[in-house]
Amino acid sequence: MSYTDLNTSLRTIMTPGPVEVDPRVLRAMSTPIIGQFDPEFLTIMNDTMDLSRYAFQTTNQRAFPINGTSRAGIEAVLCSIIEPGDKVLIPIFGRFGYLLTEIAGRCGADVHTMEKEWGEVFDPEEIQAEIKKVNPKIVTVVHGETSTGRLQPLKELGNFCRENDVLFVVDAVATLGGVEVKTDDWNIDAVIAGTQKCIGSPSGMAPITYNDRVEKILLERKKIERGLSSDSVNERSIQSNYLDLSQIQDYWTSDRLNHHTEATSMLYALRESLRLIKEEGLETRIERHKFHEGALVAGLQAMGVELFGTAEHKMPVVTIIKVPEGVDEASVRSTMIQQFGVEIAGAFGPLQGKVWRIGSMGYSCRKNNILRVIGALEATLIYHGVKVNRGDALQAALEFYVDK
Ligand SMILES: *Cc1c(COP(=O)(O)O)cnc(C)c1O
After folding, report:
1. Which ligand 1 atom is at minimum distance from the Cα of 96?
2. Across residues 132-138, what is the average pLDDT?
3. Which helix or strand (DSSP H or E) is residue 114 part of?
4. Mutate to test the pocket of ligand 1, among 71, 93, 143 (most ligand atoms within 8 A of CB)
5. Best residue among 75, 100, 171, 357 to mutate for probing ligand 1, ranked by most atoms within 8 Å of CB
């Protein structure tokens, strides 16, 4: 017998995004709409910029969201700085490295890639050697590769790029707000974040930040005033209007030059989630993500399932486990969501059907959820005929929580 359960608020979302959002963020989204040139709206924009700088750990003047999902942020940065023929070096270690490659390619870049097997990351020296060989204008890389659960070290690479006058652009979509990302300390020229991951807001905004080195290129490419002249485009113009950072940055200054109509409710949500980050404190928040990862991993190991990849470069906010031999990956996820209301994720490309990805991000990263996902996974695996160490997983997680 089955009854349709329409109450989706009973879902426990343990994927690498979208994740659950704090009720305060949901309430913020129901704030009445105000016009984008209303003085009150300007306060919201200024708050959002200040709070973004805090989250990005930067003193950059430019720190604001792009309307659209995270890839809109990536595309805005790349299409605004890449001119046809520019050399762009992209180290790829999973699905989102290919996304950077595709976007750079569409911008007409002369794309150079280097690839690692899924599950590994690059030794910074390998990339540095390639930079010397290729001599690119831009290096762009993913920080936390959600498809493989791996974290690329960035600090050394940032220093090297700065010393060699190469622009360093980082996709920190999956990490910002849950894992350390030090924009200024690590010499990153432009960083793109994502809301529906560790920031804990719905999907639909992409906070970005960039420094003067990036801005210099934007200003060179900006020619004639926005859309008020019939010959406003020349051969160096940024090909996208919607994602043209030279125009968007003017909107995000005290001049508030009109560009798009701001996605008001999404901005309310973003501001509230950034406030939550500030209130919790970035450091504490990063520690919280590591802490709950500890409980999750202890539980999974006690259950007897196998973790994917080495521990050294594991993302604390994504935990990947191998699908046991003979088990249908998708039907396990289906039982978990239909019977327990607990969602975990499958995988892409070479890992599809072979692993499950468990996210522990933002508001979803809390004790209730960790215990639920462990319990639901164990019961479901037993139901699907997998031999696990019955009862050990929840005990291990419980002990972790009680003892710490
Ligand atoms: C989720 C994700 C993206 C894409 O985000 P969208 O919001 O779906 O556009 C890009 N990069 C990384 C590392 C991600 O995890």
Report:
1. 11
2. 98
3. strand 110-115
4. 71
5. 171
95 annotated among ligand-binding-site residues: no
> 105-115: per-residue pLDDT in tens?
999 999 999 99
Q: Is 203 in the pocket of ligand 1 (CB under 6 A)?
A: yes
Determine the pLDDT at residue 231: 62
Q: Of the candidates 142, 125, 126, which has an alpha carbon nearest to the alpha carbon of residue 90?
A: 142
Tokens describing residue 118:
């899924």
Task: Characterize the bridge pairing of strands 150-151 and 144-145.
Answer: antiparallel
* Domains of the chain, CATH where assigned: 8-18+282-403 (3.90.1150.10), 31-278 (3.40.640.10)
Atom of ligand 1 nearest to the CA of 174: 15
81 phi, psi to nearest 5 deg: -110, -20
CA distance 100 to 75: 8
Q: Categorize the per-residue pLDDT at 356 as very low, low, confident or very high, splitting at 50, 70 and 90.
A: very high
User: Nearest-5° angle of CA 266, CA 268, CA 274?
Assistant: 100
User: Ligand 1 centroid vs 193 CA: distance in angstroms?
Assistant: 9
pLDDT for 228: 57
Q: pLDDT tens for residues 268-318?
A: 999 999 999 999 999 999 999 999 999 999 999 999 999 999 899 999 999
CA 196 to each of CA 130, 146, 193, 199, 282: distance values in angstroms, whole numbers, following the listed order? 33, 13, 9, 6, 17
How far apart CA 20 and CA 14 sit, in angstroms, is 8
Distance CA(44)–CA(24), nearest Å, equals 16
Contacts (Cβ under 8 Å, ≥6 apart) of 327: 381, 384, 385, 386
- Average pLDDT of the chain, as a whole number: 95
Q: What percentage of the chain exceeds 70 in pLDDT?
A: 95
* pTM > 0.90: yes
Residue 171 Cβ contacting ligand 1 at under 6 Å: yes
pLDDT above 90: percentage of residues in the chain:
91
Which numbered atom of ligand 1 lies nearest the CA of 142?
13
